Amino acid sequence: MKIAHVTATFPPYWAGTGNVAYHNARLLHERGHEVVVFTASTPRDAEMQFPFEVRRLPAVFRIGNAPLTPGLVSALRGFDAIHLHYPFIFGAELTALAARRYRIPLMITYHNDLLAGGARGLIFRAYTATSQPLVLRQADLLLGTSRDYAEHSFFSSTTPRGANFAVLPNGVDVQQFLPGTRSGERYALLVGGLDSAHHFKGVRVLIEAVSRLPDARAVIVGDGDLRGEYEALAARIAPGRVRFAGRVPPAELARLYGEATVGVLPSTTQGEAFGMVLIEAMAAGAPVIASNLPGVRTVVEHGRDGLLVEPGDVDGLTRALATLLGDPGQAREMGARGRAKVHRLYDWNVIASTLEGLYAQVTA
Questions:
Q1: What is the pLDDT of residue 235?
Q2: Contact 229, 196 (CB under 8 A)
Q3: What pLDDT, on the 0 to 100 scale, is given for residue 208?
Q4: Which of 8, 52, 158, 187 gives 35 a disulfide partner, CB atoms 3.0 to 4.6 angstroms apart?
Q5: Structural domains in the chain plus CATH codes
Q6: How many CA atoms lie within 13 A of 84 on its CB side?
Q7: Which first-to-last residue range defines the signal peptide (predicted)?
Q8: Distance CA 177, CA 22 (A)
Q9: Rounded-to-integer distance, Cα 264 and Cα 277, Å
Q10: How far apart are CA 206 and CA 310, in angstroms?
Q11: Alpha carbon of 78 to those of 34, 63, 90, 107, 240: distances in Å?
Q12: What is the pTM of this model?
């Protein structure tokens, strides 16, 4: 099949939606399909090469991660299927228009709600109430990373009754993330964007929790416009105990996961819908601590392969960190169970077979 993937973000901007689009495209390419990824052009386009075609369209303007690329409609002509990674303000509307104009089957993966505070939050709510139902109505098949998130997000109120829906979880490369030596420093690892678009990642919550445990250490991977604020907070309340690694290459990221005592995702809002970093940590044999949020909680079995804490609960996160950082034996047992679960449910090769079947279904 000739398949188009449309996404607002894509590597080298490493964020959840772009990561999923990349792996979906890679797996389909490896199975012999002709895959083209459409995304917006950025100053970092030359940093990476891909085995499949990536068309980076010029944006006449952008608002955060919402670029307007008018050339998208004509570029989507001639495909057997279009796969839109949602949300994509501007791009979603253009993709739905192209699918309807050229009569191409449209699949939409609903990754997460659009959430923010202040004026941006008002704009997002207006967009969700007006444009989102029109876009989702055009889909021949809607995909969600979990039924739990679909039922507790704006997806449920903006999707037409009786819409064709299937669950397709995010995945992980189980050969990339492997258990490493854990005989050295015990630390909690947080991986995420440190920019305003990912303000909900709970970085402040982790720093405050670490500050309450004199022996606790944390490593934070990621970069963005909020990094300076986070570094200043850590220097003030947990001096010398939080290391900001910035952006790291894949091999270094895999090493950090493999040596981490625990992976942490302390997100504060439903802007988090799944948490790929959880299954990356679990693949590397680390137990996880995650916020008890719809979608996220489907990945973690509390007390078996990780612990759940309430969003924004510094005391709860502090207790969870004390439990796993203070008991390496329990952490190893939880990590082993998590790795077995990832191999069974979240290996990209397992998910690729499901995805390929869904394309066959929707094009038939």
A1: 97
A2: no
A3: 98
A4: 52
A5: 2-171+347-363 (3.40.50.2000), 188-345 (3.40.50.2000)
A6: 32
A7: none
A8: 17
A9: 8
A10: 13
A11: 12, 29, 21, 16, 56
A12: 0.87
Residues 112 and 34 sit within 8 Å (Cβ to Cβ): no
Q: How far apart are the two ends of the chain, measured CA to CA in Å?
A: 12
For 256, list phi and psi in degrees, rounded to 5. Answer: -65, -40
CB contact set of 180 (below 8 Å; sequence gap of 6+)? 255, 257, 258, 259, 284
Crossing angle of helices 314-325 and 203-211, in 10° steps, is 60
Q: Which residue, among 50, 37, 35, 29, has the nearest Cα to 2 in the 3D structure? A: 35
Antiparallel, parallel or unpaired: β 61-63 and 66-68: antiparallel
Taking the C-alpha atoms of residue 274 and residue 291, their distance in angstroms, rounded to an integer, is 11
Q: What is the distance between the alpha carbons of residues 54 and 59, in angstroms, rounded to a whole number?
A: 15
CB 254 within 8 A of CB 177: yes
